[in-house]
Every structure is written in structure tokens, then in C-alpha cells.
Amino acid sequence: MADVIRLSGNLLGFYSSSLGSSRPILVAPQPRFCKRVISFSVIWPLSNDFVSPIVFRPPKQLMSFKAQATVTETEQPKWWEKNAGPNMIDIHSTQDFLTALSEAGDRLIIVEFYGTWCASCRALFPKLCRTAEERPDILFLKVNFDKNKPMCKNLNVKVLPYFHFYRGADGLLESFSCSLAKFQKIKDAIELHNTARCSIGPPKGVGDLNLESLSAPKDKLAGSSK
């Protein structure tokens, strides 16, 4: 008979067993004592009076790290600040407006008058951008009503969103209000006014806004040099 020492947690127990061979005896720990560090004993019979336990401990649990990604939020442009492409231009003043009309030649121009607070303007705008992407031959001008009230008043803009269609010497072709539900109205106007043609003569004035005033300073400068 040999004494068997069993190590489990902080408890030691002595048992007796008969060792019939020189092979080691594995004594498993009680489950209730196994929490964080699991220990068990491998028993080798060294003598009839003493059995030496060899205690194995599992490797320490790997530390887990939580990586926190810091995302820097960049301020997104507001809906009215987005443009579909180079053929969609923001108008910031009467001078910008007149310059765009005078430099467009025979190109069809669609002017949208909008308000940043206007829900109908916001709902219609994505579809207007898609139309601008599909029709790069047309110039789209965006006029903020609140920042250009005197000009809008001269152009008789009283409801938003509102649209003007211009082309070369023909000047103002058509004007109307439009919502998302009636967007087909804009497409019909494009098909009507964007036909192939050549205008004869300079661009016309726009209401009280006269395009000829843009060339007046150049004429005076040329006259003074003679």
C-alpha cells in the first residue's frame, strides 16, 4: 500500500491505493475547486511510505485588449451646398447671375430659386442633381432666395422652388413653380427648349437686370485709350 497525496486548490487529501505498476496515476481535481487555476497531480510510486506529487499549472490566461477606434467626424455639406458637377453653379450675387447668362451662349440655362428652409426644395433637389448629371449640355444655376432677395424680387420670384429657363438671344423662355410630384414639368421644358439651333444677336436683358451693363465699363475704358 502506498500513500497518495492529492493536491486540489488549497486542500490536501491522503488516500491509499494499491500500485500494481510503475506507471503514473493521474488524480483529477474536484470540479468545485477549479476556478481560475486548475491543478492536478501525477503520482509516481517512489516507495511504500511516500508518493511525491508533481503539480502542473496551466499557462496564465491571455490578456484581452479592447481596441477603441476614434472616428473623427467631418462636417458634411448641407443639402443645398452639394453640386452634381461642373454644370451646376451656385449664384452668390446679381453679378454672378448676369455673368453666367452672358457666357453661356446658346446653351440652355435652368435657374433654380430655392430656400434652405423650404421642404419642397429639399425633396426636389436630389432629382434635379440627377438630371444635371444626365444632361451635361445644360447649365444649372442655383440661387439662394434669402441671400439674393433684391434680385429675386426683380425677377418676380414669389414662390419656392421656382425655375427660369434661359437661352441666348431668346432670353427668358419659361418660368414656373415646381414640386417633386410635378418634376415631369421640368423634363418637358427641357425637351421643348433644348433643341439644336443658333441664336442671332446678343443675349437679352433679364427684367430690370440688363446684360449690356456688363460690357459698359470695357467700352468706356476703350474710349479713354483713344
TrEMBL record:
Presence of the UniProt keyword Transport in the record: yes
Keywords on record: Disulfide bond, Electron transport, Redox-active center, Transport
Annotated coiled-coil segments of the chain: none
Transmembrane segments: none
PROSITE patterns per record: THIOREDOXIN_1, THIOREDOXIN_2
Domain of life (superkingdom): Eukaryota
CC terms in the record's Gene Ontology section: chloroplast
Annotated Thioredoxin domain residues: 56-223
Family assignment from sequence similarity: Belongs to the thioredoxin family.
Protein name: Thioredoxin domain-containing protein
Organism: Cinchona calisaya
